[in-house]
Amino acid sequence: MKIKVDTHTHSIASIHAYSTIDELAKSARKAGLAGFVITEHGPALQGAPHRYYFGNLKVLPRRLCGVYLFHGAEINILDTAGNVDLSAAELSALHFCMAGLHEGCFSPHSKEENTEAIINALKNPYVDAISHPANPAFPVDYEAIAGTAAGLGKALEINNSSFRVRQGSAETCPVLAEWCAKKNTPVCIGSDAHYRGDVGKFDRALPVALSAGIKPERIINRTLPAFVEFIEARHSAHNRDSN
Ligand SMILES: [Zn+2]
Ligand SMILES: [Zn+2]
After folding, report:
1. Which of 9, 41, 102, 140 measures 20 to 30 Å from 49, CA to CA?
2. What distance in angstroms lies between residue 102's CA and the mean position of ligand 1's atoms?
3. Where are the alpha helices (DSSP H) in the chain?
4. Which residue positions in the chain have pLDDT lower than 70?
């Protein structure tokens, strides 16, 4: 099985990343992807782009170097109430929004508080997925978040970079994946590339997902049509919720 859309990438707009959007697009094409989502960090993280960056994504072509470019963000969960660092109006213009816990924006709390923060962020109608919920720095009740995400039709990410940059992920990611399999939770597999060479790399995350028993059809970014179907369903949910 091959993943055709990378749902998690960063460009030099986040100043701890090292490639341009054009370079990411070229690499996406080389990796055989049909599309990728540019998911810069929300403005509360140090070195993230200014909030205007997200509103201006519309100036980019929708197709770049032969692949589709989706507008996204990786916003920061700021507190246990699940508040985030972009407004509903800003988020509503994006195709795909992940929220995540990041040091510097949310200090690691107890497992209960981290879980509460993620569950409350999932309840934000504009949050489509949670980035790297298996980060060992933020212990979480995986059964609870997998159940909540499944109930809301939102995705939990199995993050390929975690295996390299978030120590302990080789132990936590399979546990998260098993709970996603048990709860039938939608899952996205993201590279979290901060350099063009990592775009479309799912060599650690995908085998973990599949061997945990996650059904391929629950992986929302397995094909371009599957990903488009997921974001369209999420967008009709936004419209329902805001009416
Ligand atoms: Zn992140
Ligand atoms: Zn990221």
Report:
1. 140
2. 6
3. 21-30, 52-55, 88-92, 111-122, 142-152, 162-165, 169-183, 205-211, 224-242
4. 241-243
